[in-house]
Amino acid sequence: MNEIGVRDVDVVVIGAGQAGLSAGYHLRRTGLEPDRDFVVLDHAPRPGGAWQFRWPSLTYGKVHGMHALPGKELTGADPARPSSEVIGGYFADYEETFDLRVHRPVDVTAVREGEGGRLLVETSEGSYATRSLINATGTWDRPFWPRYQGQETFRGRQLHTADYPGPQAFAGRRAVVVGGGASGTQHLMEIAEVAAATTWVTRREPVYREGPFGEVEGRAAVALVEERVRRGLPPQSVVSVTGLPLTDAIRGARERGILDRKPMFDRITPTGVAWDDGRSVDADVILWATGFRAAIDHLAPLRLREPGGGIRVEGTRAVRDERVHLVGYGPSASTIGANRAGRAAVADIRRLLARKPEPARV
Fold it and tell me: What is the three-state SS of the chain?
């Protein structure tokens, strides 16, 4: 800690989800010591990243493609247990096994230019001066709510996937589910079992994917997302370019008329939703399964955004500032991608740290 109470470290990691823990693991592997050379900050109340906030009906057996963190497998998990419990416990054990000493709950309010070529990270537990930054904040804290005419007049309940409590909250109610991604279809299929009626609306016709999805297909999908990031556009999810896997559950829901997609409504009324062609649907609740945006507002003082609205990234490094790495962003927003991004970011940062630091400004 220096004379003005700012703690000096080589690396600050913001976020302790999959990408942040992967980064912490690789920092330790390279010989850096937590709380001396680097610090991991997490705003959540307990281990588990965004998984700790998932709805109880999302059991571990329903999770698609959860990839183990580096150095420690997740084994023997009960598929009937909520994923929030299984993965939360796994992350907690991981932090202890590798002694990552995550600081929580800590809110990062801003990252700005500091003195002597360092970044100043302002947080609820004080400030850090760091030579490099790994941002692993994900998207869960920034649910995307579209705006539609009449939205404020709706007399029922509106909620987002981030607040989804499970299907029982919809028992006996007429529900409109908005969104054609994995969460939207999972919510709809659960809600339909207990609701009085369901209506499914999406902006685009859903795309279903049949057959195997191997390494070649995965790389092609990631490449499409990566191209947007390289151009400085806001990232899309990998799922958005792969389509929905046509599982037995989805086939059954289509056959029963549950996944009967309607085009996006034009306005919201006090009692439901309506289209300009005269159609309308009464509803007690609207569930917005409309995705999330990258939680990067704290980086705004660094002016990293491009005119297209996103941060241009090469690998994991922000093009506008080589000290800043984004992991779990864009093409690395999958569990396996987050692992790889953590390793790549640390390798790049080690090269940066090997350089002689710039002298402090007088």
Answer: CCCCCCEEEEEEEECCCHHHHHHHHHHHHCCCCECCCEEEECCCCCCCHHHHHCCCCCEHHHCCCCCCCCCCCCCCCCCCCEHHHHHHHHHHHHHHHCCCCCECCCCEEEEEECCCCCEEEEECCEEEEEEEEEECCCCCCCECCCCCCCHHHCCCEEEEHHHCCCHHHHCCCEEEEECCCHHHHHHHHHHCCCCCEEEEEECCCCCEECCCCCHHHHHHHHHHHHHHHHCCCCCCCCHHHHCEECCHHHHHHHHCCCCCEEECCCEEECCEEECCCCCEEECCEEEECCCECCCCHHHHHHCCECCCCCECEECCEECCCCCEEECCCHHHCCHHHHHHHHHHHHHHHHHHHCCCCCCCCC
